[in-house]
């Protein structure tokens, strides 16, 4: 019997798209239904999507951009002082997380971190003096992303801070990040109490110099290898970094013991600090992500997302094909688990550059590798797997270097395609910490959040417009 005859003799199958009510009605009438998961694109993006499809350059451009992103080999090579690596940083310059921002629009944790950084740098006498000086414009605020850098939460980087230097072993790119302070009342969450400033001064006086000396003595550390191993051990690269921090300490531990001239007491302090801070590697994973995303930037007609970042007021994205242009929407609230007596009423909107991890296939995109993360950010282990699976729908590739055991060692979904986001309505999934909205509060919880679709819609519109320029 021919295939056509078999088809004619079989029961009819009705294909449906969109409304579930239609499919159910047809099934109730006795017919078989094949469901297609489809929804119309985000309103207002239809013309842009048609223009991009008609132009025809986007597929090849995206292939180039994602190949560049996944070809990067990030290595930690040094720790240096911020003013020595950022040529455009003055004594009154502070870098911050997210899109461009002025003091007047800054959220509570961002203001708290700015105040703390000013006290640390000796730019103000007390918190009130710092706030008044910032309001008068005595400091210059600039996004970390404008300088090849990233910073978690408020992301504030000041001239005296030690910064990690991450270089591409397969190219000539370089990125930077501050060093992680730990959890709780820390600068990046907007705290500025005396113990916060004391810790920062220990970091610039001991932690930075000792780590820098160890790296110069022992050689670069392959961050991609550490991250890949950590995904096999239950990390996600954003809010669970216990395994990768342990691997880092194991890698550098021998040099800390006998490979530098630093005083023994200082080497012991550094070892103990890293050993007691499960989030130490977060900043370094972020710098590795920044290196990869920068490598993918600047490809004409590419809809690859190279930046997702938040400053507590705005959520912003950049696309490879639109260069340095930001597309912003209000920073959303976080669906979180809260510490102690804190509640959602105490929480700031979403904040930080740490979404660079999701941008390169880690964090919320790799939650299936880290089911234990739900104990920190909420949700369920099954939900973590579902979130990762959904991200394959809006990404360009699977990163074979970063594999997920739970998914039969499938590579993490990597390279957000803004066109797919607006076409499907599937939003990038992010896990994150939560800062208190009142300056000086510090960390109040952690949770889950989705990137606002408006950013991607703006980006696609601008990308379509760029085709005629």
Q: Largest sheet, described in full?
A: 5 strands, mixed
Give me the Rg, rounded: 23 Å
Please provide the count of β strands: 18
In the CATH hierarchy, what is the class of the largest domain?
Answer: Alpha Beta
Q: Helical element count?
A: 17
Give the CA-based shape.
globular
Q: Percent range for helical residues?
A: 25-40%
Instruction: Estimate nothing, just give the exact number of structural domains.
Output: 3
The average pLDDT score comes to 93
How does the helix and strand content classify structurally?
alpha+beta
Indicate the low-confidence ranges by residue numbers: none
Strand content: 15-25%
**Superfamily at the CATH H level of the largest domain?**
Enterococcus faecalis V583 domain
Give a summary of the structure in a few sentences.
The protein has 469 residues and is of the alpha+beta class. The protein has helices at residues 3-9, 20-28, 46-55, 58-71, 82-85, 108-121, 127-135, 194-218, 223-231, 242-258, 264-275, 282-295, 356-359, 374-377, 381-391, 418-424, 453-466, and strands at residues 13-17, 32-36, 74-81, 93-96, 140-143, 149-150, 162-168, 174-178, 221-222, 305-311, 314-319, 327-330, 335-338, 351-352, 395-404, 410-416, 429-435, 443-450.
Molecular structure report:
This protein has helices at 3-9, 20-28, 46-55, 58-71, 82-85, 108-121, 127-135, 194-218, 223-231, 242-258, 264-275, 282-295, 356-359, 374-377, 381-391, 418-424, 453-466, and strands spanning 13-17, 32-36, 74-81, 93-96, 140-143, 149-150, 162-168, 174-178, 221-222, 305-311, 314-319, 327-330, 335-338, 351-352, 395-404, 410-416, 429-435, 443-450. It has 469 residues and is α+β, with helices and mostly antiparallel strands. The chain is globular, with a radius of gyration of 23 Å.
């Amino acid at each position: 019997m021919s295939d056509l005859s078999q088809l004619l003799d079989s029961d009819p199958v009705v294909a449906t798209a969109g409304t579930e009510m239609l499919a159910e009605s047809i099934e109730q009438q006795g017919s078989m239904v094949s469901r297609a998961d489809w929804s119309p694109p985000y309103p207002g993006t239809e013309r842009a999507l048609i223009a991009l499809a008609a132009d025809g350059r986007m597929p090849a451009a995206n292939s180039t951009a994602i190949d560049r992103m996944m070809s990067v080999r990030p290595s930690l090579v040094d720790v240096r002082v911020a003013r020595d690596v950022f040529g455009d940083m003055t004594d009154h310059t502070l870098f911050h997380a997210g899109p461009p921002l002025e003091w007047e629009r800054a959220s509570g944790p961002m203001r708290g971190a700015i105040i703390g950084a000013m006290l640390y740098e000796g730019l103000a006498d007390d918190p009130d003096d710092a706030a008044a000086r910032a309001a008068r414009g005595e400091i210059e605020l600039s996004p970390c992303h404008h300088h090849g850098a990233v910073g978690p939460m408020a992301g504030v980087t000041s001239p005296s801070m030690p910064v990690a230097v991450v270089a591409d072993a397969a190219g000539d790119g370089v990125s930077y990040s501050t060093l992680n302070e730990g959890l709780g009342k820390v600068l990046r969450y907007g705290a500025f109490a005396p113990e916060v400033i004391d810790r920062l001064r220990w970091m610039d006086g001991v932690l930075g110099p000792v780590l820098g000396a160890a790296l110069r003595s022992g050689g670069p550390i392959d961050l991609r290898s550490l991250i890949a191993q950590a995904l096999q051990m239950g990390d996600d690269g954003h809010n669970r970094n216990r395994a990768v921090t342990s691997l880092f300490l194991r890698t550098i531990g021998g040099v800390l013991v006998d490979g530098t001239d630093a005083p023994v007491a200082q080497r012991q302090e550094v070892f103990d600090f890293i050993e007691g801070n499960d989030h130490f590697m977060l900043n370094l994973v972020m710098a590795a992500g920044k290196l990869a995303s920068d490598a993918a930037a600047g490809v004409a007609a590419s809809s690859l997302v190279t930046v997702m970042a938040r400053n507590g007021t705005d959520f912003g994205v950049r696309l490879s094909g639109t260069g340095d242009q930001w597309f912003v929407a209000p920073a959303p609230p976080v669906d979180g688990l809260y510490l102690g007596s804190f509640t959602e009423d105490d929480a700031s909107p979403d904040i930080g550059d740490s979404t660079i991890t999701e941008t390169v296939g880690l964090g919320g995109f790799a939650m299936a590798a880290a089911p234990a993360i739900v104990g920190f950010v909420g949700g369920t282990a099954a939900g973590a797997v579902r979130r990762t699976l959904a991200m394959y729908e809006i990404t360009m590739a699977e990163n074979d270097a970063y594999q997920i055991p739970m998914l039969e060692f499938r590579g993490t979904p990597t390279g957000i395609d803004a066109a797919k986001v607006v076409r499907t309505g599937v939003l990038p999934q992010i896990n994150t910490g939560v800062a208190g909205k009142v300056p000086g509060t510090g960390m109040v919880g952690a949770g889950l959040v989705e990137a606002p679709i408006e950013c991607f819609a703006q980006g696609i519109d601008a990308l379509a417009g760029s085709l005629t320029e």
